[in-house]
Known about the structure:
This is Phasin domain-containing protein. The protein has 151 residues and is an all-alpha fold.
Amino acid sequence: MASWIVGAMETYCGAVEQGQRRWLDAQQEACSCWLSSITPSFALSEGEMERRIDGGLLAGASIWQAQADIQRGLMLAAERLWTEMGRSIARQLPDDGAAPIAAVRQALEVGCASGAALSTASRQAGHFAATNFSGIPLKAARDVRRVLRQS
């Protein structure tokens, strides 16, 4: 029984470590980008100004995405834990097919399946939201520039 707990904790620790690394990389990129965009010592061309603005917005999107990646990784680790816990409990139930045990086994299977489906749907919705919403500021900035150029 302890083996699934050890595996689940290893998965959780791996997800936390990977997420932390991704989060720190995104923050470093953002700080570097934002610092370089606010320290001009000369007049910037319009193209260079746009590149710096876009770079800052992309760095912000990377931070948002890193946060979503961490959440998704932890949700996946929790989903695996849930699945392994259900399997472990099912293995401990007797195989005699008695009515009370069969009902418990069926409830356990339904609970595990519905929990996994809900977790999968939550992860997919979170990924969709993070992917689409993180790029909105950059798209808005580009749309504003396009409209200003048309005027």
